[in-house]
Amino acid sequence: MRTNIIRNERMAISYDTVNGWTVVEIDGDVDAHTSPLVREAVIKLVDEGHRHFVLDLSFVSFLDSMGLGVLVAVTKRIREHDGSLRIASASGRIVRVFDISGLREAYEIHPSPEEATRHAPSLGSLAHWPHPSS
After folding, report:
1. With the CA atoms of 75, 81, 86 and 90 taken in that order, what torsion angle do they form, in degrees rounded to the nearest 10?
2. How do residues 63-98 score in pLDDT, each as one tens digit?
3. Closest CA relative to residue 85, chosen from 62, 116, 58
4. pTM for this structure?
5. Domains in the chain and their CATH numbers?
6. DSSP 90
7. How far apart are CA 65 and CA 51, in angstroms?
């Protein structure tokens, strides 16, 4: 059952739990104006005990450097709690932002939330973040 965290004129953020993963669906541009909402939502979930996340970017058409910075910040927060993070359904435009920033190899990017949640999470998957595992 999908639960709304934030819903306003700029953005909607909701989550569901699938196979041990907290799938956070973001609907709206992730930019200087909205990225604090993403941070707030994920940190709220971490504080509630969620540890393993899939960020579903299916409905994100724009991600700027502030948005990418927030993703890095929440990744660090999740890592501090021995959690894990995957990105799902990022458009080619969004993946390009990860490429340009040099962070493409630091994240597991999956074509869909279903693919990202196919296997249950394992502890310590961010232990070597931001360096890709070999």
Report:
1. -40
2. 999 999 999 999 999 999 999 999 999 899 999 999
3. 116
4. 0.89
5. 3-116 (3.30.750.24)
6. -
7. 25
